[in-house]
C-alpha cells in the first residue's frame, strides 16, 4: 500500500514531465544553432588567404594607389597612419583628449597588403591603449616612449607577416 500513494502522486503531477520535454527541446535547439554557426564559420574565408589573393590581383586604378603605398613601404618600410583624436582617461576633472599622427616603421619582411587590410584593427588598438592613459602619463618623455612600446607589442601580437619595429610621432598634442 505504501507504493500506491507515491505512484499516484507522481502520475498526477505532470510538471516534471513537461519540464523534461522543454529541456530536451531547448538542448536540441542549442545543438542545432551551434551546428549552423560552425557551418557558417567553415565557409568564412581565412584572412591569410584573402591577403594572398589580394597580392595576386591585377592592376587597376585602386591597385595603382596601392602600388604607390607599397613602394613607400618597400623603399623606407614606413606606413603613415591618419591623424586621430582620442579621449584620455580622466578622474573627476574635465574631459581631455590627445591628437596623434604617427608613422609605423615596418620590418623588411612586412607586406603592405596585410597592413592595409589591418589598418582599422591597428587604429582600434592604438585608440584603445590611449583611452586608458591619463594626461599626466603622456606629457612626460618616458610616458610617450612607454606608449610606443605598448602600441608596438599590441600590434605585433596579431600580425602574420612582418612586424612593427618602431613608431614615429609626427604630431602629438594633449589638450
Written account of the structure:
59% of the residues lie in helices and 16% in strands. It has helices spanning 3-12, 15-43, 47-55, 61-76, 112-117, 119-131, 135-139, 141-156, and strands at residues 78-80, 84-87, 97-106, 164-174. Strands 1, 2, 3 and 4 form a 4-stranded antiparallel sheet that branches. Helix 6 crosses helix 8. It is flat, with a radius of gyration of 28 Å. The N and C termini lie far apart (86 Å). The mean pLDDT is 81.
Our measurement of the CA-to-CA distance between the termini, rounded to an integer number of angstroms, reads 86 Å
The radius of gyration is 28 Å
Instruction: State the helical fraction.
Output: 55-70%
List the total number of helices. Answer: 8
Q: Do you know the CATH architecture of the largest domain?
A: 2-Layer Sandwich
- For the record, the count of structural domains works out to 2
Largest sheet: 4 strands, antiparallel
Order of helices and strands: HHHHEEEHHHHE
Number of strands: 4
Instruction: From the 3D structure, determine the CATH topology of the largest domain.
Output: Tetrahydropterin Synthase, Chain A
The CATH homology group name of the largest domain: Band 7 domain
CATH class of the largest domain: Alpha Beta
How large is the share of residues in beta strands? 15-25%
Instruction: Output mean pLDDT.
Output: 81
Q: Give the overall shape.
A: flat
Give me the secondary-structure category. alpha+beta
Q: Low-confidence spans: pLDDT under 50, at least 5 residues?
A: none
